[in-house]
Design a protein that fits this description.
By secondary structure, the protein is an alpha/beta fold. It contains seven helices and five strands. Belongs to the site-specific recombinase resolvase family.
Length: 183
């Protein structure tokens, strides 16, 4: 059994996937820290190249394999044609992929539903962010300096005070003062 784990960004952790793949008995695990939008992922390509007939390709959840119905089905069909089984450990499609008859139909429908679900999540997130913006709320990290602090920093700088002294007086970093005064 050959495992594959993927997270979308370097800031994310794949430990949950790693634990599940180890518990499933994967002899080797390949990894990517990249979006599932493209199939040109180094870890995925290395795993697909490494596997031989009789192996089982194991992923934690179907969405770790890919985001689009077409890409996931292409990978699954390629695996089947090479005599490699596909096993999904968690989620709606937990189990092994059967590329025949009802199994193929069910797999195809569930992959399509997973893609639609992701699209709906993205759409809802965008709508929520736009609604919050329309109400004057912003997302992300709060600004380090208020308008009053910037005005005070400008006055202190005009009086000849150093960036370091201004930063200390305002309780922010020197780079923050420099950045706000140079804008």
């Amino acid at each position: 059994m050959i495992g594959y784990k993927r997270v979308s960004t370097k800031a994310q952790d794949a430990q949950l996937q790693a634990d599940a793949l180890a518990e499933a008995g994967c002899a080797r695990v390949f990894e990517d820290k990249a979006s599932g939008k493209n199939i040109d992922r180094a870890g995925l390509l290395a795993a697909l190249d490494y596997m031989r007939e009789g192996d089982t390709f194991v992923v934690w959840k179907l969405d770790r394999l890919g985001r689009s119905t077409k890409d996931v089905l292409t990978i699954a069909e390629d695996l089947h044609a090479r005599g490699i089984a596909l096993r999904i450990l968690a989620g709606t499609l937990a189990g092994s992929y059967s590329p025949k008859g009802e199994g193929k139909f069910f797999f195809t429908m569930m992959v399509a539903f997973a893609e639609i679900e992701r699209d709906m999540i993205v759409e809802c997130t965008r709508a929520g962010l736009e609604a919050a913006k329309a109400q004057g709320r912003t997302s992300g990290r709060p600004k380090a300096m208020t308008e009053e602090m910037i005005a005070a920093a400008k006055a202190r700088r005009a009086a000849g005070e150093s960036y370091g002294a201004i930063a200390k007086a305002l309780g922010v970093g020197q780079a923050t003062v420099y950045r706000h005064l140079s804008e």
